[in-house]
Design goal:
Strand order of the largest sheet of chain B: 1-6-2-3-4-5
Number of helices of chain A: 27
Largest sheet of chain A: 7 strands, mixed
Largest interface: A-B, 46 and 35 residues
Number of strands of chain B: 6
Strand content of chain A: 5-15%
Distance between the termini of chain B: 25 Å
Distance between the termini of chain A: 81 Å
Oligomer: heterodimer
Largest sheet of chain B: 6 strands, antiparallel
Shape of chain B: globular
Number of helices of chain B: 2
Radius of gyration of chain B: 11 Å
Number of strands of chain A: 8
Strand order of the largest sheet of chain A: 2-3-4-1-5-6-7
Chain lengths: 662, 88
C-alpha cells in the first residue's frame, strides 16, 4: 500500500429539513444493491410491479430516514441507454414517467447510485449516465471491505470534488458507512459535472476519472482465488461434476428439510378442518368451510416450505457468485434447444414444484428466452406427480422393484425430453428470433448474506401466498362443490348395511365402514363431477379410460395428486390408497360391465404418459399468467401440454392394444 | 470474421492467459456492441482470455489499468471482437 492521497471533504451545503424523500436506487447487477436495500429497510418494504410490466418493484421504508421516506429498488442494469426493458424502466422512473404500482408517478428526490468498490472503472460509466439526468445524486461505494482485502484502493474525494455530489464508502454486508450514507441522502445535491454526451466520450471520461481516483495507490493484486475456483467450476468436466453435486445437495436439502414443515402444515390444517367440523353444525356451510375453504388453503400453503427453502438456498448460491458459473456450464447443454444457461435453475427447481421454477425464470434476462423457459418448466416431473407415478408403476410391475425404478426414471426422462423439444418448437415458431448471445458477468466469489437470503425467501413466500393462493383457493372451492353436490340419499345397499350393523354385534364396525364406502362411491358417481365424467368419457375412451378413470382425470385437473385419492374413493370408498386392502381393490377393480379391469397394462402406460405430459395443475397456470404478463401464455401452455399428452397417450394405448398388450 | 490486419486477431483466437487490447467491435450488431460496452468490452479496453471455447471466459479491465471483472462470452460474440494481442 502506498501513500494515500488526502480525502476531500464532503461538499458542503445546507442540510435539508426533515421532510420525506423518495430515493431511487440504481446500480449494476452484482453491486450489492439488494443487500443494501435489505440492510436499510429489512421487512419494512412491499413488493409490487411496475405497471405494464412483469418487472418486480420493491419499495422500502427505512426507519433511519424522515417519516414517509421511500427507497425504490430499481432493476440492476449495466447501462441506462440499453435497449432492454429493465433499462427502459430505470429511464422512465428517473424521468418521472413511471413508478411502482400504487405509488405517485413523479421523479425521485434523490438518485442513489450503488457502485462496486472492486470494479469502479466500469461502474463509473453508469454513474456518468446517472448524473447526466441532473437529479440530486449520492454515490454509494459499496463492498469496501472486499476491495480492501483485494488491495484495490481509490480516492472517493476525487469523485466528490469532480462531480459535486457525495460519495460514501460503505459495506452493506457489514453495515460499515451506512449511517454516513443515510445522512448523505438527506442533503443530496445536483451534480456540477456533465459527462460527454456520446458513449465513447463517456467511456474516456470514466477512464480518466478512475485514473485520477487511483493515482498514488498501488496496482491491485491479481485475484488468484477467483482464478483457482473458476478453473474447477467452469471446466467442461469438473464444472459439470461440481454442478451436479451442488444441485443434488440443494435438492436433497429441500426434499429432506421441507418434509417436516409440510407435515406440520398438513397436520395443522387437518386439525383445523376437524375443529371447524366440531364447531359448525352439519350442513352446506360446514362442508364448504371444512372441505372447501380449509382444505383448499391447506393444499396451497403446504407448498410454502419448498418455495421458501428453494429461494433461500438459491439466494445463498447467487450471493456466493456460483450461480453465474452454473449458468455458464449449462449454457452448452441448453443452447441447442433454444434455451440458455440461465434457464437451468428454473428447470431444475421445477422438479420440486413448477411454481418456484416459473418464478425463478425471472433470472432469465431475455424475454423470449424467459417465456420459453416458463412454457417448458411444467414438463419437468414435480413432486405432485410422484403419487401417480408410484401407483401406476407398482400396478405395472408389482413384483419387480427394478422395473418400477426404471419406469419411474423413464417418466422423468420423458418429461425432460418433452420440455426441451417443446422449447425448441416454441423458439422456432411463436418465439422465433435470435437468442441473446451469452454475455454474462461472473462476479467475484464471496461469502453470502444470510439476511438477504432470509428476506428473499420471505418475499417469495408472500408473493406466492398472495397471488397464487387467492386463485387456487377459488378454484379449489369450485372443484369441491362440483365433487360434493348435488347431495344424494344413501343408496339402498348402504341403508341395508347400516340396518344389519345395528344387530351385528362385533361385526358392526366393519359393516358401518362398508356402508360409508358404498355411500362415498355413490355420492361421487352422482356428483356434478361424476356426471361430467360420464359426459366426458367418450373423449377419453380412445386413451383406454372408462368412466371412473375419466372422473379421476377430471378431478385431478387442479392438482395431479388428487387422481390417486379420487380413484381410491370411487373404487374402495376410501381416499388412502395405502390403507389395508385399498390398493388391492384398486388393482383388481373392474369397469361398470363388472368384467373388464380398469387398470390394464395398456391403460396404465397410457395414464403414465398422460400424467407426465399433461398440464394438470391450476396453480401453475395462474403463476404462468402472472409471470408471463398475460393469460394467453397460460392458455397456450394448457392447450399445448394437454394436446401433447392426449396425442401421446392415444398413440401409446392404441399401439399397445394393436400389439396385443391387454 | 477476419481481423483487419495481421497484428489483429479475434478475441476467440487468443490463447488462454493471453491479453489483448480491443480494437473494434464494429462487426457486432449495435445492440450487442452496446451491451458489451456497458460490460466494459469496448475499444481500448484491455482483455485477457481465461478460458477458451464457446462460451469463453474473458477478464475485462478498462483502459486505465484498474481492477478487472470476468465475463462469459458466447463464441458468436467472441469471434466478432477484434483485439490486438499484447506481449506477455
Amino acid at each position: 500500500m502506498s501513500n494515500a492521497p488526502a480525502t476531500a471533504a464532503p461538499p458542503s451545503g445546507p442540510a435539508r429539513e426533515a421532510r420525506p424523500i423518495r430515493v431511487a436506487i440504481l446500480g449494476n447487477p452484482n453491486t450489492g444493491k439488494t443487500t443494501l436495500f435489505n440492510r436499510l429497510c429489512g421487512v419494512r418494504h412491499k413488493t409490487s410491479n411496475f405497471p405494464g410490466t412483469t418487472q418486480e418493484a420493491r419499495v422500502g421504508f427505512p426507519r433511519a430516514l424522515p417519516e414517509g421516506s421511500e427507497l425504490i429498488d430499481l432493476p440492476g442494469i449495466y447501462s441506462l441507454e440499453l435497449d432492454q426493458s429493465e433499462a427502459a424502466i430505470c429511464r422512465d422512473v428517473l424521468a418521472g414517467q413511471l413508478a411502482p404500482r400504487g405509488e405517485t408517478v413523479e421523479a425521485p428526490d434523490v438518485v442513489l447510485v450503488v457502485t462496486d468498490a472492486t470494479n469502479m472503472p466500469r461502474n463509473l460509466m453508469l454513474v456518468g449516465e446517472a448524473i447526466r439526468r441532473c437529479l440530486p445524486t449520492v454515490i454509494a461505494i459499496n463492498m469496501v471491505d472486499a476491495s480492501r482485502r483485494k488491495g484495490i484502493h481509490a480516492d472517493e474525494g476525487v469523485l466528490m470534488s469532480r462531480l459535486g455530489v457525495e460519495a460514501v464508502p460503505c459495506s452493506a454486508r457489514t453495515g460499515e458507512g451506512l449511517d454516513a450514507l443515510l445522512a448523505a441522502l438527506t442533503r443530496a445535491r445536483i451534480p456540477t459535472e456533465s459527462p460527454p454526451p456520446s458513449e465513447d466520450g463517456l467511456a474516456l471520461w470514466a477512464d480518466d476519472l478512475y485514473t485520477r481516483m487511483a493515482a498514488g495507490y498501488d496496482q491491485p493484486r491479481p485475484d488468484t482465488f477467483t482464478d483457482r475456483l473458476d478453473r474447477a467450476f467452469t471446466h467442461p468436466l469438473l464444472g459439470l461434476g461440481a454442478f451436479v453435486a451442488v444441485m443434488a445437495g440443494l435438492f436433497f436439502v429441500i426434499f429432506s428439510l421441507a418434509a417436516y414443515p409440510m407435515g406440520w402444515i398438513e397436520s395443522i390444517f387437518s386439525h383445523l378442518g376437524g375443529l371447524v367440523g366440531a364447531v359448525l353444525p352439519p350442513g352446506a356451510i360446514h362442508d364448504l368451510i371444512a372441505d372447501g375453504v380449509v382444505a383448499g388453503i391447506g393444499a396451497t400453503v403446504v407448498f410454502l416450505p419448498q418455495i421458501c427453502l428453494l429461494f433461500f438456498l438459491i439466494s445463498l448460491l447467487e450471493d456466493t457468485g456460483y450461480l453465474a458459473r452454473a449458468a455458464f456450464v449449462m449454457d452448452r447443454v441448453l443452447r441447442p434447444f433454444g434455451l440458455n444457461g440461465h434457464a437451468f435453475v428454473p428447470l431444475l427447481s421445477s422438479h420440486a414444484c413448477a411454481l418456484p421454477g416459473i418464478i425463478a425464470a425471472r433470472a432469465v434476462p431475455d424475454r423470449r428466452d424467459r417465456l420459453a423457459t416458463i412454457l417448458t418448466a411444467p414438463f419437468m416431473s414435480c413432486t405432485a406427480r410422484i403419487p401417480v407415478y408410484v401407483l401406476l408403476t407398482v400396478l405395472l410391475f408389482r413384483d419387480s422393484p427394478l422395473m418400477q425404478a426404471l419406469a419411474f426414471t423413464g417418466c422423468y426422462a420423458l418429461g425432460i425430453a418433452a420440455g426441451l423439444l417443446s422449447a425448441l418448437v416454441a423458439r422456432r415458431t411463436i418465439l422465433r428470433g435470435p437468442s441473446r448471445p451469452m454475455a454474462l458477468e461472473l462476479p467475484s466469489y464471496r461469502l453470502p448474506s444470510l439476511r438477504t437470503a432470509l428476506l428473499t425467501a420471505w418475499d417469495r413466500g408472500l408473493v406466492f401466498l398472495k397471488k397464487a393462493g387467492t386463485i387456487i383457493l377459488a378454484i379449489s372451492i369450485v372443484l369441491w362443490w362440483l365433487g360434493a353436490y348435488p347431495g344424494t340419499h344413501p343408496p339402498p345397499e348402504a341403508v341395508e348395511l347400516r340396518e344389519r350393523a345395528e344387530t351385528a354385534g362385533a361385526d358392526a364396525d366393519a359393516l358401518l365402514a362398508e356402508a360409508d364406502a358404498v355411500e362415498s362411491r355413490h355420492a361421487t358417481r352422482r356428483s356434478f363431477l361424476g356426471r361430467m365424467g360420464e359426459t366426458a368419457e367418450p373423449v377419453f375412451r380412445p386413451l383406454g379410460y372408462d368412466r371412473q378413470l375419466t372422473v379421476g382425470v377430471l378431478a385431478s385437473f387442479a392438482a395431479r395428486e388428487v387422481f390417486v385419492a379420487t380413484m381410491a374413493i370411487q373404487i374402495a370408498g376410501r381416499d388412502d390408497v395405502e390403507e389395508s386392502g385399498v390398493f388391492e381393490a384398486v388393482a383388481t377393480a373392474t369397469r361398470d360391465d363388472g368384467r373388464t379391469p380398469i387398470f390394464t397394462r395398456a391403460t396404465c402406460w397410457s395414464l403414465l404418459v398422460y400424467y407426465v405430459l399433461a398440464m394438470q395443475c391450476l396453480p401453475t397456470l395462474a403463476v404462468t399468467a402472472k409471470e408471463s404478463g398475460h393469460w394467453k401464455w397460460a392458455l397456450l401452455q394448457l392447450g399445448w401440454m394437454w394436446g401433447l399428452a392426449y396425442a401421446s397417450a392415444l398413440i401409446v394405448f392404441q399401439s399397445l392394444r394393436a400389439a396385443g398388450v391387454a | 470474421m477476419q481481423p483487419e490486419s495481421s497484428a489483429s486477431v479475434t478475441l476467440a483466437s487468443l490463447l488462454p492467459g493471453q491479453s489483448g487490447l480491443v480494437r473494434d467491435t464494429d462487426a457486432l450488431s449495435p445492440g450487442d456492441a452496446a451491451y458489451l460496452r456497458a460490460l466494459g468490452i469496448r475499444p481500448r479496453s484491455r482483455v485477457r482470455l481465461c478460458r477458451q471455447g464457446g462460451p469463453c471466459i474473458v477478464e475485462v479491465g478498462c483502459g486505465c489499468g484498474g481492477p478487472c471483472c470476468r465475463v462469459a462470452l458466447s463464441r458468436h460474440l467472441a469471434v466478432h471482437i477484434i483485439v490486438e494481442p499484447m506481449p506477455a
